[in-house]
Amino acid sequence: MFRTMMKSKIHKATVTEANLNYVGSITIDRDLMEAADILENERVQVVNNNNGARLETYVIPGAPGSGVICLNGAAARLVQVGDVVIIMTYALISSEEVAGHVPQVILVDDHNRVSDILSGEKHGQMV
Length: 127
Hints:
Keywords: Autocatalytic cleavage, Cytoplasm, Decarboxylase, Lyase, Pantothenate biosynthesis, Pyruvate, Schiff base, Zymogen. The chain is mainly beta and 127 residues long. It is 8% helix and 49% strand.
């Protein structure tokens, strides 16, 4: 049996752009993608802390070090520049691998630069 488990997330990134006229997707600073082990075209779930909107889309790499978090296409209607989002990835993991699986949590600063990397999460943990 395989289970879908959180692989990684970028926690509390700030939306820098919303581009309604693009075909679709989310553009993420390549440095953040690498820290969170996210590949180009990989499916992600995006949760907007400001309004509760949740969406799935795929990733386009942005310039490294730019801090870009840009929702494109229809997804741009679910965010405003300045909103805080959580970007999550998932992986299918065998039942045998679940016990040893530890997701990576990428914390970012106000400019969407990596400020810390956590191994997993605990209930009540505040960041």
